[in-house]
Amino acid sequence: MARVLIVVGSRRKGNSYNLANILNNSFANSRISSDIITPGNQKIYLCTGCMDCDKNGVCDFKDDMEENINLVNNAEVIIFITPTRWNTLSGDLKIFMDRLNPLYSTKGLKDKKIISLVIGSKKRDEYSLDGAMTSITSFIEGCDAKLIYKAYFDECLDFEDILKQGEHVDKVVKDIIKILE
After folding, report:
1. pLDDT tens across 13-45, in order?
2. What are phi and psi of 57, to 5 degrees?
3. Any idea what the CATH number is for the domain that residue 10 is in?
């Protein structure tokens, strides 16, 4: 069974947080090992683009990304969960991805299995979730990782709206567990 890292792209205890906890509990019941990190609640400096990590595969900053990079390295599967912000992924998730550049420069993300879950506040046809998914997909392609599953959740404006989508959430959880087993 796979070792999973769930990266929650929102620091609020809302839909992304709720979905991450549903997944984490379901994984535990299926004996799948998983960790959850919320980059927005961590000490993570913004990438300055110095490109030192391209030379030596190590970022000059000493912050929570050191441990996060260890978690990413040890994970067989990474699950990105992000709310949409102006039709793209959250800033917290973008900063996290930018700071994975030491792994990009050393090919440390090559063939890493990634799952992308995007959560939007309106109906998908009214306000597209595609921009967020496209951003994540571009990251995955750029580092030669593998997108193994993706799902969209719409009409999740209030903090617990995702909990009202039990049937869809259950299907996504079952799909992911099947992939991981």
Report:
1. 999 999 999 999 999 999 999 999 999 999 999
2. 75, 15
3. 3.40.50.360
> At what angle are helices 91-98 and 130-142 packed, to 10 degrees?
10
Domain that holds residue 121: 4-180
- Helices marked H in the chain — which ranges? 15-29, 52-56, 65-74, 91-98, 101-105, 130-142, 166-180
Strands 113-119 vs 34-37: parallel, antiparallel or unpaired: unpaired
How many domains does one find in the chain? 1
d(CA 77, CA 66): 18
Instruction: Give 151-165 as a DSSP string.
Output: EEE-S--STTGGGG-
DSSP 120-170: -SS-TTTS-SHHHHHHHHHHHHHTT-EEEEEEEE-S--STTGGGG-HHHHH
Structure tokens at 116: 């992308």
Q: Quick: pLDDT tens for 139-169.
A: 999 999 999 999 999 999 899 999 999 999 9
CB 10 within 8 A of CB 17: yes
